[in-house]
Amino acid sequence: MTHQAQGGRRFARTLKAAWSAALAVALTGAVGLAVATPAQAASVDTNKWYVLENHQSGKALEVANFSTAAGGELQQYTRNDGAWQQWRFISVGSGYYVIENRHSGKVIDLWENKTADGTPFKQWDRNDRYNQQFKLVDSNNGEHVRLINRANNGAVTVTDRSKADFASITVLSNKNQYNQQWKLIPVSTSGNTGGSNSGDTGNTGGNNSGDTGKADGQFAAWPKAASSKKVSSTIKVPKSGLDGKMVRYYGISDGSQDESQPAMFELEDGATIKNVIIGEGAGDGIHCKGTCTIENVWWENVGEDAATQKGKISGQVMTINGGGARSADDKVFQHNGPGKMVIKNVQIEDFGKVFRSCGNCSTQYARSVEIDNIMVTAPGKSLVGINSNLGDKATIRNVTIVGDSKRKIAICEEYKGVTKGEPKKVASGPSSACNYSDKDITYRD
C-alpha cells in the first residue's frame, strides 16, 4: 500500500505509534518533569519533547497500545507522560514540522495521503512527504495551537469532539474547534534525551534511581508518584477497573518475602488496573481472579510476588503490559490457574524468576506464557520456568538482558510439575516447550 502522488511526488505510507522509543537512552540519573508555560506556534522548541493536551477533552495525544510499528493508531488518553505520549517537532523548513513520537521514533502521518475529513492519522517511518508535515497555528486563546497538515490543510482533530479515553485522531477541515486545539506542554529540558517520569507534577517523592537499565530508549524511565496512600487491607478491583493516576500504594505488609501475605489488589475476572505504583510493603502484589489486564503498573520493591494468576476458568488470559518491577527475591509473575499469561513491554531489575508456572499447586493445569519486548537487568536467575510434563508452553521474543556478561541468567527452564512435594528441573534451553532462539535474546553491558 502506498500514498497517492501529489505535486509529482509519491507519498510513502503512514506511521504507527507505540511504547516509549526515545524515552530512556541508558540513563544514569533522574529526569524530572519540567513544568513550563505551554509553547506557542512561534516559540516551539525543537530540542524539547511535549505532551499534546487537547483543549476539548483535557486528554493527551498518544500512540495506542504502546505500539512501535509503522501504521500504529493514534488516540487520546488520560495524561500519564509516558514516552508514547511525548512528541517533538522537527523542522523541515518553510515553517513546517514533522512530529516524532518518543516511544516509537515514528512520525504522525495522514494515512495514505487521503484528503477527506475523517481520514485517520497514524504513525509511520519518517519520509518528510507533505502528509507528514504540519504547521502550528495559534488558536487566539494564548494557550493552544492547531496542527495543520500540509497535504490537505486539515487539522489534527479528536473525532466527534469526544472526551473519552481511546477516542481516535482524524483530520477535519480547519474550523478552530476546541477538539482541534492542543496545548504543548514540555516534559524535558532542552537537549535532554532522558525519559518521562509519569505523574511528576506535584509528586511527593518516588524512586527514580537505577535508570541505567534503558535499552536504546525503548522503555520508560521509572516514574515518580503523584501522591502516596497506605493500604491496610486488600483493595478489590471490579470489572469497571481502577486507574490509579500514578498514586503509590504501600504498606499492606512488613516488606518481607514471606509466603501467604495478603495481596495489595485483587482483580475480579475481566478487570483492568492501570497507572499504579506499588511501594514498600507490597505484600503479595496483585491477584488476578480470571482474565485481567495490568497496565503501566510499577513495583518499586516486590514483596512475595508482583502478580499472581489465581483464576479457575479455562481460556482466561492475564496480560501485563508496560511498567516494571524491582527487587524480587523469587518470582515476579506467578501462574497458578489455567490459561495464558502475556508479559510485554515490561522492565525488571534484580529478580529471581520473571515467570513461573506453579510447580506444586494442588490442582495443576496446562498453562502458556507469551513474553515480548521485555528488558531485564541482572542480577537474576531465570526468565521462564514451565512444567513441560503438564503441557506448559512458552514463547519468548524480543528480550534484552542487561549486565549479564557471563550469561548466567537462564532463558527457559523446564520442570516436572507435581501436586505434592517439590518440582524437579529436567531441562534448560530452546525446545518444543520453550519456543525461542538466540536471535530473540539481546545482551547489553
Describe the structure.
It is an enzyme of class 4 (lyase). Residues 192-208 have a biased composition (Gly residues). It is found in: Secreted. The protein is mostly beta strands and 445 residues long. It folds into two domains: 41-186, Trefoil (Acidic Fibroblast Growth Factor, subunit A), CATH 2.80.10.50; 225-444, Pectate Lyase C-like, CATH 2.160.20. The chain contains no helices and 30 strands. The chain has an 18-stranded mixed beta sheet that branches. A two-stranded antiparallel ribbon has the order 1-12. Strands 2-3 form a two-stranded antiparallel sheet. A hairpin with a 6-residue loop joins strand 8 (134-138) and strand 9 (145-149). The protein is elongated, with a radius of gyration of 23 Å. Mean pLDDT is 84; it is low at 1-41 and 189-217.
Please provide a brief summary of the model.
The protein contains no helices and 30 strands.
